[in-house]
Design goal:
By secondary structure, this protein is α+β, with helices and mostly antiparallel strands. It contains eight helices and ten strands.
Amino acid sequence: MNPRTDKQVHHRTGWVPLMDIANPSEEHAMLRELVRDFVKEQVEPQALECDRDEKFNLDLFRAMGDMGLLGLTASEDYGGAGLDAIATVIVHEELSASDPGFTLAYLAHSMLFVNNLEHNGNDSQRERILPLVCSGEWVGAMAISEPDVGTDVMGLSTTANQREDGSWVINGRKMWITNGCIDEEGTPADVVWVYAKTGINDRGKTEISTFLVEKGMPGYSVGQKIIGKTGMRGSNTAELVFENCVIPEANLVGGVGDAMIHMMRNLELERLTLAAMALGISRRCLHEMNKYATDREAFGRRIRDFGQMQRYIGESWAKYRASIYLRYCYKFGIR
């Protein structure tokens, strides 16, 4: 996906139209229109109900698989779309303007799992699993956080020990895992990207490795679904339990001790798309602010006609526009 060449960008003092930055190619613009229509027709009508009921809309999620949106950065050879970072920002921004909770579930699947597997898995793992997660047949998750250490990776207590036959045995608990379960019955995620301690390396430091744990493997279960969340209620959050969970040697990702490399490789895109979610939420907040200020009257006038209200709206609009540039301009190298 190459930016259009009909407009020159001056990297020091030049100005680029806003929508050229947000949609630097015809393909990006078409993707945004596709997702925006999908949001209007299918996401917005269910957003309030699913948020209120703390329900993850699995059917809607799988509809995104039919549209080719669950494997944005995965290779087309494995059912992905083979798109770039800007494409991921566009999709997360548009979804979040309607249903941030559902978008978080989408991010956990498409960025934390699919993108991780695309860049860090081996050919055999990609060939076997990517088509299933790109289509939506499988729901993926990533498990780092634990009850006692949060996201302190080096403090993990979950362990993985290798047996003589090459298989691994995982023991431990993971907490607050998005997509950890996929329904009200507590059905576990179909596949989870799990970080576990595998020993101490030659330099005396904790060695963390990455494993693919699949539904049906003995010892893998959901401990509890987390309910009563203050936000992001449209995504399922769960505790995952690994009790003498046996996984085959082939489900080790990379080499022993490679987990930190995997984590850092994926962190940039994860943070980028999380920021895109904030951009979509901001856009919706601004829309609702304007609507309320137009509909609400005081002293016989719309409150948007009062100077103080105009100041609030104007400052919010300026911050939102600045956020767009901050999020997209790095594609052009503008500082």
